[in-house]
Predict the 3D structure of the following.
Amino acid sequence: MITKEDIGRFEVCPTPFYFYDLALLDRTVRRAKQAAEKHGYILHFAMKANAIDPVLNVMKRNGLGVDCVSGAEVSKALDIGFAAESVAFAGVGKSDEEIVQAIASDIFTINAESLEELEVIEELAAGLGKKTRIAVRLNPDVDANTHKYITTGLEENKFGISGWQIDDVIAFIGKSSHLQLTGLHFHIGSQIRDLEPFKNLCGRINLALQRFADAGLPIEHVNAGGGLGIDYDHPDDEKDPDFEKFFDVFNELLDLKPSQTLHFELGRSLVAHCADLIARTLYIKKGLKTNFMILDAGMTELIRPALYQAIHSIENLSKRGEEEVERYDVVGPVCESSDCFGKAMQLPLSERGDLIAIRSAGAYGESMASHYNLRSLRPSVYRD
Ligand code: LLP
């Protein structure tokens, strides 16, 4: 919830900037942790969702591990002070340099996404004279029913190892001398609000566990990925998302041995609601059907609407409580037609200079910001 005091602070800040409510973040992370600990599950934070130091520090303070997808993220995690054994490293295109860095750092697991990558890890680990912990990321072929750009667990996706390749993977790991298989990794997609795909995922995980057990390859941990969605229409609902219900699905449906641990790598569900993008109205430009509200923030600061047709709730902070309303196409200043936050959005009658909040922008907001048109964000504002 953006308070009157916050708005007072914003009045003197150059826009556009991200506003972070770190106390809300802390509460959300604690809620997730509590729900996970009820079942003994281990949480990692998917750093790609947001990699700024204050956010990472909240995760570290609450004892979460990290999920990284680049060598730079691995370095950042270690620099911030996450224990190496809490860092997982996934990604379909790890460079040799990134793999060597991960092996040398003794992280929790390198999550291999193809047989070809396993061969390279084996070779590089041999070169370093080390045995390295790996997990294999399996493609469970589960439809996440989400936007096509953020679904990852279908057979034709580039992510993970497909069912038809598992026998070859098992054979390769069985004869390798530098790979220590510890886990199986899955991730079916992002912004998944219906729990059904996670139920299907559990079935696939059980089958995969059986297959590896039959092959005599013991599995110590399962990493079920992230993907839990949030309610973008209700940015101030502190009970969203429902972590309890999410973890209950796995508790009910997964056949794990008592010695096997279950890990999750949540991104959006932990950070989305804790930040808003704050902008100013530059112009209200008359249109034939709808007027345009032209902001000083655009797709360079928050690309989700342009890339995934995502709708974030928008609030005119300067006109709170005013009754006269109007419909606006809320757009940014960037030279692209897709630079649009929403069409015909109903907002209070607005004017130049109004402060506008684009809500629930803590996940994949700042971390996906770009310098297109040589634009840059202004310093973030924090509430502890
Ligand atoms: N694990 C892996 C292997 C992933 O690829 C991802 C996200 C996560 C965990 C975390 O997923 P989450 O809990 O945040 O759903 N930029 C897009 C989302 C891309 C998600 C990429 N992978 C968006 O703004 O909607």
The chain has a mean pLDDT of 96. The chain is about 30% helix and 20% strand.
